[in-house]
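Posted in: Structural Biology > Protein-Ligand Complexes

Title: Requesting predicted complex, zinc ion in pocket

I'd be grateful if someone could produce the C-alpha cells for the following input. Sequence and ligand are given below.
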Amino acid sequence: MKISRQFTVFGSAIFCVVVFSLYLMLDHLQLDRIKNPINEERLQNGQLVILQDKIDHLERLLAENNKIIANIRDSVTNLRKSVNNDKGPLEAKNLSQGLVDLLPFAPIWVLIPSEDCQFSAQTYSKAADEVQMLDVYDMLSFDNPDGGVWKQGFDISYEENEWDQEPLQVVVVPHSHNDPGWLKTFDDYYRDQTQHILNNMVVKLHEDERRKMIWSEISYFSKWWNNIDIQKKDAVKKLIERGQLEMATGGWVMPDEANTHYFALIDQLLEGHQWLERNLGVKPKTAWAVDPFGHSPTQAYLFKQAGLSNMLIQRVHYSIKKHFATQKTLEFFWRQNWDQESSTDILCHMMPFYSYDVPHTCGPDPKICCQFDFKRLPGGRISCPWRIPPQVITSDNVQQRAHMLLDQYRKKSKLFMSKVVLAPLGDDFRYTDAQEWDQQFNNYQKLFDYMNSHPELNVQAQFGTISDYFEILRKVTGMDQAGMNKGVSPFPVLSGDFFTYADRDDHYWSGYFTSRPFYKRMDRMLESHLRAAEILYSLTLANIKMFGKPSNYPAVENYKLLTEARRNLGLFQHHDAITGTGKDWVVVDYGTRYIAFLLPLPVVVHCCRTILVSGDIENEWQLRFLVSFPMNVFIMPSFRSVVVYNPIEQARSSVISIYVTTPHIRVLTAQGRPVIAQITAVWEHFTQASTETLKLKENGLKHSIKVDFVWYGTTSNKDKSGAYLFLPDGEAKKYSPSRPPVIRVTKGPVFSEVTTTFTHITHTLRLYNIQGVDGQAVEICNTVDIRGEFNQEIAMRITSDINSMNRFFTDLNGFQVQPRRTMSKLPLQANFYPMTSMAYLEDSNRRLTLLTAQSLGAASLKSGQLEVIMDRRLNQDDNRGLGQGVLDNKITANSFRLLLEPRNSRENNAPFSYPSLLSHISCTYLNHPLIQMATSVDPALLTPVPHSPLTSSFPCDIHLVNLRTIQSQVGGGPSEQAALILHRKGFDCGFSSRNTGLLCSTTRGKVLTKLKVSTFTPVSLSLMYESSSTPKHQEISLKPMEICTYRIQLG
Ligand SMILES: [Zn+2]
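-- Reply #1 --
Done. Output follows.
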C-alpha cells in the first residue's frame, strides 16, 4: 500500500469535529499584502483607500494575532516537554487505525453502470438544418471589407412591391439600458438617473396607452419600488396589466456571460424572478441581453429551464452577424451542443448591427437612423456624429421623414425571414427626463400615424414590448406562442457559443476575461460561502422544525443576511462588474459590498450551534473564526476544537490548513483518535536566495509538463489594450527576471511543495500525499504582483508533449465544455477564450486538465500548450466608454489544479466534450473548500458524531447546486419552503476509474435523498412554473446535463 493514508480531515459528514491539542500547518495562499501602496493613487481616490483599509484591517488582525503568538510562546515552550514526553512524533504507522472513523475507504473502482457512459459516447450527427458555430468559424474568412453605409455588412436593396401581399409589421421597442455600476456606482446611477427614468415612466406611459417600455434590471427596479408610494405602485401594476410595461429577463442584473459561474447566474435570476412574483405577480417570457460582451449557450439553457420562450442577443462578432444576415439566420432556435432532440431549444433573435443604440437599430445606415433619435435634436446635450441632426416631425416633413425611416425598416427586414421587423429604441440610461419621453414618443407616434394611414405603404408600425415582437413573429411564422414546438417555423437550429466577441477590426474583447483578477477570485470564494450558508440555513430550519430547538435561533435576521448576500453577489454578476470593466471607484464599491457580504458567515456559525450542540450550553458556545483571504483559523494555546463543514454533497478526504501558535501540536478526532498533521512554517521573508534556475517537471507517465511564465506587451498601434480589449504586441516574451528566483522546498507526510519566488510571481506547486481526490492532481498557486509594470500582461504557460494540434477545450460558466480551435486566420487575441472552471488539451492517449478557482482568459496557441493570462496592467483606455486604463492591480493569488489522465477514448470531432468524473469532483473540491471554525467549547460538549443529513454521498455526477430557502410572501423572512436545485453532470467514461479516490458511484441519474421532506414539487428553474407531472415523493431522476429545481418543504 502506498504510504499510509495521511491527511487531516473528513468523512461523509457535513460536520466533523476535530480536536487540536496543539497545532499545525499554514495555508499556502498569500494575503494581498499591500506592502508598497502607491501613494499617488491613494491620494487621488479616497474610496480606494476605504477598500484598501478594509483589507489592511484584515491584515492587522493577522498581525495582532502574531503578537499574541509571541506572548504565549513562552508558555508553549513550557508545554513542549510534557508533549514530548507524553506522545512521540506522529508517525504514519500509528495513524491508520485512528483514521478509520473519519475516512471511508475509497473503492478501487468507481461503480459506473454502462448506461451512464452512453451519453458521452453518443455519436454526433448534425441535423440538416443545424448551424454549428465551430463550422461557421471554419468557413468564414474573417476579412473585413468596407460594406458601405453598413460598414461591416453589405448593400441591401428591395423591390417596392415586396410587401403588397403581406404588409411589413414594425415593432419599435423603447428601452433604457441601466448598468448597475460602470462609470458611476449602483447607488449614484440610481440617484442621478435610474429613479428619474422610472418615475417619468409611470407618468409618460399613462399619458398614452399606445406607449410601451421594457425594463430588465430588477436590482434597480426593486430599489425604486421600495421608495415609491402605494399609488405609484398601483399605477405600475396597471401598466403591466395593460401590457405597456414588460419586465424582460427579470434577473437581478443583465449578467456577463463569460466569467460568470452558473451557480451565480441561477442565483441572480432566481432572486429577480422571485422578487417579481412576490411584488408584481409577473413571469418574464423573453430575455433581453443587449450588452454582455459575447454570449454563452449556458445562459440560453438557463432561460429555457426558467420557462422563458424567447431571447435576444446583441454583442456577436461582426463577421458572424454579417454571415447570418446574408443567410437570413439571425433568428434561430438555440440548442445545446449535447441535445440531439429539441428539448433545450429557445427562440433567439440576434441584432444585426454594431450596437443597441438608435443609430444602429432602425436599419443599416447609422447616418439616417441617428436622425430618428429625437434625444439628439439640435440644442440637446448629445448630437449625431454623422453631422445630420434629427428634425422635429411636423405635418410639413412627416411624409419625407416617414419614407426615410420606412426605407431603413424595409432594409433591415430583408435580413430576416419574416415580415416583422424589430426596432429597439433606446440606449444607456435613456428616458431620464420628461422632455426626452415627449421627444421620442410624440415624434415616433406622428411617423407611425402617417405610415399606418397610408395603405399603399403596406406597413403597420407601432410601439411594442420585446414579447409583443416575438408574439407577432410566432404568429406570422405559424409557431405556437410558448415555443415548445417550433412546428413549421422557418428558423434553423443553432448550437455553439458566441465567443470571442469583436466589434470592429481586430478589436477582440478577450482582455476582460482576465481584467481585475483579484475580484474574479473573490467572487468565486464568496459564491462558495454563500452556497454553504444557504444549504446550512435550510437544514437548520428543518432541524428546528423537527426538534424545536433552539427557540431563540434568529431565523429572520439570518435570512435577511442571506438575502443581502444574494443581492450583492447578483449585482457583481453584472457585465461591468465581474468583467473588471468599471471605473476604479466603482470597483471599490463592489469590493466594499463584498466585504459586507461576508455577513452570511455568521449564518453558518448560528447553524453550527443549532445542529451541533446538544444541551444547554448556548451561552458558552463561541465559535470563533477569522475571515480573511484566504480563510484561516487561528488556534492559540493548549486545547481547541475545530468544527469542519464540508459544503459539498460527497464524502471527501481533504486537507485543511490552520494557523497555530506553536509547532507542538497533536490533532485528534472528537473520539480522541489521532489525525495526521503536518507542521509547516509561515514564511514572511526569504532568507536565502538560491542560484538554481527553475525547472519543473513531472515524470509520472512518460511525459513532461513544463510550467513557465510569459509577458505580453501592448501594440504600438493607436488602439491599445485596455479593460475590455487585448491588443498584444505580437507573441509573448519569456519571463526572465533580473534576479534569480528563491526556491523553497517543503517536504512532509501530508504534502510536499516547491515555492519559487520571482520578482512578480510566487509560484507554488504542491502535491498531496493522500489517497483521495486531492492526491490526484498538482495544486498550483500563483501569487502575482505586477503593480510596478507599464502595459504588461503576465501569463502562465503550461507546455506538454500532448499532441493536441489546434484543438483545446474550455468550459462555459462551469456548466459545459466547448471545443475550441486555434485558428491562424484569426489574430492572436481572438484565440483566447473565457475559462470559468477548466480548460483541457488531449490526444488519443491522455488529457491534461487545468482546473481553475477563478475565471481567466485562456488559449492554446501551440500544440500541447495551454496558456492563462493571470493579470493585466494597462496604462490607457481602449475606447469603449470606460475612459481609463487598468492600474488598480492588487496582489492576487490564483489557484489551479493540474490533472493528467490516461485516456482510452477514440478521437471524435463532436461539438461536445465532457470532463472525467475525477475532473468534475476535483473542480468541486477546488471551488468549495472545507470551511473550518475554531471554538473554545469543551469538546466533551460537542456532538461527537459527525452530523450528516445525507446517509451517503450523492452520486458522483449529481451536484447539489443549491438548497435555498424561499422568501416568505411578506416580511422578508423565510417561508417554510426551499428550492432544491440539482445538476446532473455529463462525464466522459474514457478515463480510468481505478484508484481515483472517489467515494461515490453513479446511479443512472437517480437520486435518493434521505432528507425528510413533507412536500415535493418539480418546478421550473426559478420557481415560476410547476411541472404538470407530479412524480412520486422524493423520486428524483435527472437526464445528463440537466438542471432541475424542486420546491420542497423540509421536516
Ligand atoms: Zn451595460
